[in-house]
């Protein structure tokens, strides 16, 4: 789960609902490492937006953090935490942000931004869970097939 969450291709797949894609500058394939830049372009509120973040912390397989270096927010920090619970993994996303434009930004945050961010993260989490489960099943099927040979 940890490696899936930091795989830029899987990120794009799990955020496809917002037409998000990986763009330059930064890593465009493979697993994100500490210090990497990663850039996404996607549609939010009907507007194509670009977001560039740097991976500032990485403690495999427990947590990694990305922080915005360019984007629509005044500040954004995204903490990804993972906890093994039995045969499952609990993935927790903690997002701290500050909207731009002072009072107008705070008003937008209250009226719709907070709700949009919660929707975006939970929709992306569900997609990531489906990807992980699908890959896990394919892996099990491959193991089963190889034992039959």
Topology, please?
Layout: H1 2-5, H2 8-14, E1 21-23, E2 37-44, E3 47-59, E4 63-70, E5 75-85, E6 88-98, H3 102-148
Antiparallel strand pairs: 1-2, 2-3, 3-4, 4-5, 5-6
Helix pairs in contact: 2-3
Total number of helices: 3
Which secondary-structure class do the elements indicate? Answer: alpha+beta
Question: What is the global morphology?
Answer: globular
Q: Tally of extended strands?
A: 6
Query: What summary fits the major beta sheet?
Result: 6 strands, antiparallel
Secondary-structure element pattern, one letter each: HHEEEEEEH
User: How helix-rich are the residues, as a percent range?
Assistant: 25-40%
Please, what is the average pLDDT?
91
How large is the share of residues in beta strands?
35-45%
- Cα-to-Cα separation, first versus last residue: 29 Å
Rg from Cα: 17 Å
In terms of per-residue confidence, which ranges show pLDDT below 50 for 5 or more consecutive residues?
144-149
Widest beta sheet: strand line-up: 1-2-3-4-5-6
Keywords for this structure?
six-stranded antiparallel β-sheet; 39% helix; disordered C terminus; alpha+beta; 6 strands; 149 residues; single chain; 3 helices; globular
């Amino acid at each position: 789960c940890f490696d899936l969450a930091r795989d830029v291709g899987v990120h794009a797949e799990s955020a496809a609902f917002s037409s998000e894609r990986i763009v330059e500058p930064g890593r465009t394939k493979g697993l994100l490492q500490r210090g990497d830049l990663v850039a996404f372009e996607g549609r939010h509120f009907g507007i194509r937006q670009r977001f560039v973040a740097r991976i500032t912390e990485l403690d495999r397989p427990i947590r990694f953090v990305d922080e915005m270096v360019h984007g629509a927010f005044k500040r954004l920090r995204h903490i990804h935490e993972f906890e093994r619970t039995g045969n499952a993994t609990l993935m927790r996303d903690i997002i701290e942000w500050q909207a731009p434009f002072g009072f107008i930004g705070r008003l937008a945050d209250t009226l719709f931004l907070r709700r949009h961010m919660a929707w975006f993260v939970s929709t992306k989490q569900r997609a990531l869970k489906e990807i992980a489960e699908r890959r896990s099943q394919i892996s099990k099927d491959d193991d089963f097939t190889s034992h039959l040979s």
